[in-house]
Protein 1
Amino acid sequence: MSMAEHNLLVVDQDDDFVASAKQLFDGSLPVARSLEEAAETVSSGDVRMLLIGPSFANDAAMEQIRQLHNQDPSLVLMLVVEEVTADVLRKGMRAGASDVLDTPLDEGKIEAAIEQFVHDVLRRKSSSAAPRAPEEAGKEHGRIITISSAKGGSGKTVLATNLALVLNRLPDTKVCLVDADLQFGDVCLVLQLEPRFTMVNAAHELHHLDAELLDSLLTEHPSGLKVLAAPLEPAFADDITTAGLMQMLDVLKETYDFVIVDTAAMLDELILSLIEKSDDILMLVDMDLPSVKNAKLALETLRLLKFSTSNVQLVMNRSNSKAKLDNKEIEGALKMQIAASIPSDAVVAASVNEGRPVVETDPKSKVAKGFESVAALIVGEVPEAQVKSGLFGRK
Ligand SMILES: Nc1ncnc2c1ncn2[C@@H]1O[C@H](COP(=O)(O)OP(=O)(O)OP(=O)(O)O)[C@@H](O)[C@H]1O
Ligand SMILES: [Mg+2]
């Protein structure tokens, strides 16, 4: 790999690390043995990128790295550490590092990091994606929208992912999708994402969790949508407390216009807290009798617990399925109007298996229009004409 164009400087005390870096870059690389030496080289030469080795993964060095960053904020600082923990990542990002990589280094990792960096710079330049200061005057906090259902497999994850993508296309709108199906969350699977970090990392950082730190733990979809991934294994779900997850949502609300929360089909403490906290709750009901029965029980329980159901909206899934029930009867049984309907379509199963949501693969399909009609419930009444004229078109 030729790194000449990146004007790379390797910084480390350890001979083995320097040798391995040199090997990756055809043997010819300037080296600095200390951060002081690196600062000198930076000020006298045309170094654009620093590969800072594991010798400097300590607090004192982070302060020096921050000074390097302040010296020239356009420098690309790549930290290499033995293990990327949330703590190291946070400290590195605070110090101005562009990325934190783990050993052993390989070409792929560095190329991916450079690509990510270029991508971030481009995004920052297109002002709509600029990180918004939480204290920005007059800016209201984002809305939390929870997708729930009283029966498993009713299409929550399909709705959550498609809805998030539709909202994310609105101009100047930042969306974060939170996978709160703690044991069997599959948002990342459905979106074909491989998270580096999950909410478990966030749960371990609650005492100093802020927007910046939490942002560094999110996974980005190619569309720009951000995802807070569920724990990777069911056993890790125990690390997530209800209070902890609520804290994460509060932090996300500071920077995201919409925080969409996918859930497991349960009526437990977590879902009750989510219902209390959310601005909107979309209760998804599949077009079959057990789903309607469970929805009825769930709503009755909520009313019994004196929970307000005023921000709950009913969304019917697979509304055109063969087992079509009567809408009026459903509304009567649930004592609630149906707010939106999503038809059944074989493309949904295909899109799930492919990892590409229908609003991307088949934007003209009736199901995609169904998801847009759900989005319209959130952003206000959107006349059909406006949907067609591209309010929900690509950015
Ligand atoms: N409108 C639809 N048309 C056709 N198939 C659908 C539709 N909605 C959902 N499905 C199918 O149902 C399956 C289950 O959907 P999904 O995973 O979104 O449900 P869920 O409520 O998240 O389930 P769980 O409770 O297990 O998390 C999907 O794999 C998809 O194939
Ligand atoms: Mg699901």
Note: Residues 177 and 260 are 5 Å apart (CA to CA).
Protein 2
Amino acid sequence: MAKVLVVEDDRVFGELLRMHLEDRDHEPHIARTLEQGRSWLTGNAPDAILLDHQLPDGFGLDLLKEIAAQPPFPPIIMITGISDNTLAIDAMRQGAYDFIRKPMDEVELQATLTNALQSHRLSRQVAAITGTEDYQVDLDQIVGSSPRILQICKTIGSVAASNAPVLITGESGTGKEVVARAIHHHSGRSGLFLPINCSALAENLLESELFGHEKGSFTGAVARKEGKFELAHEGTLFLDELGEMPASLQAKLLRVLQEGAFERVGGTQILNSDARIVAATNRDLGRMIEEGGFREDLYYRLDVVPIHLPPLRERMHDLPALTEHLLKKINKRQHTKIRHIADKAWRRLKDYAWPGNIRELENILTRSAVLARSDTITADLLAIPATREDPGAGPGEAESSAKPARLVTLDEIEREHVAVILAHVHWHKGNACEILGISRPALERKIAKYGLA
Ligand SMILES: Nc1ncnc2c1ncn2[C@@H]1O[C@H](COP(=O)(O)OP(=O)(O)OP(=O)(O)O)[C@@H](O)[C@H]1O
Ligand SMILES: [Mg+2]
């Protein structure tokens, strides 16, 4: 339940808004003049404000300026009958969250309000964290509550303590390394987590990195060097970009997996490693095997515990949580203070297909956070290509022409939101009621109505 202040002098329209808000389980307060709005605000903190422009005792824009002068302030949505673009631009520039024209489309209002409340909640959480100096972003944290991510977490939990090799597959940027680190973190192993990128080094260097070398074994080998297999003793060796591993090394790796034995380059002593192997690739190993690029026997040795990470576009439920997590991380690392994502920017993030997955999301958020001159990421800062649903979208476009990319029904929005929250709290209905601001029977009715299970 959100507390919404409505400043609107038109009685009929005011009542319409009241009914609309009460139907969505919000708690509206109607003020008919600027003065009434001001005095209510001295004792109350709304979650959002719906503001008319022409009022008996002045202009809504003036109240907007007063409120915006004292951040942090709740999202303010201007609703006005004036078809004046300069007013819209002015309102957005002064800090309005969005601008809606009368006659108002209820779907548009609901979509805007949902986004406004969501981003307000998000920004409060980010703000709370930006203020604390000793906050540490947990880099091993796997953010997300979509069913497939929960399944992956369960798998990690059940295999972490064993020595079984794990093969993580998924497109670039889906979080393969995050999962690998989580496996090590939960393994209870006392050794190190050592990543090695199989595509980054020339074949002979990769071999010496993995297995080490003896002094004088090749030009430049001035001293004996221990390889990652030795160094990861009692720890985890993460073979990243496994698909790029040259054939000769695939054979040597197979031997370590079969016998636990290897030799340093140029050495004769047989060494043993108990390093746990976690490998990752974005290549289709099955196809590579058919084409002769990858050893089938090695594949079966590594694919003991397969974990496949879905692309971000198949887990868009997690977009809010990931965005929040990444912004905290970015604020910390880049010393930025992003607290808001403008409505249109948020829609653009939701409409994009994310071919580069979470890494792309992180890059785009980082770039816009650094470029932002305020605490808000606006759509013009987002360097993402326009989507088909949103043909006008593109860098440089003004915030003020915001329109929902696709018109959806209120029920669709509600269904999606309730489902997201339930998944987020792992179906703890008490917590869901608290977040959604509705009673337990109301939640039960919605679960039944939308057939959520
Ligand atoms: N579930 C997640 N929760 C939080 N952050 C994540 C998650 N998944 C990925 N990230 C973040 O996204 C970025 C990319 O993740 P990661 O490096 O693990 O991807 P990858 O699959 O190994 O990508 P590549 O194939 O390009 O190497 C990292 O900064 C990581 O912290
Ligand atoms: Mg990686």
Note: Residues 165 and 277 are 5 Å apart (CA to CA).
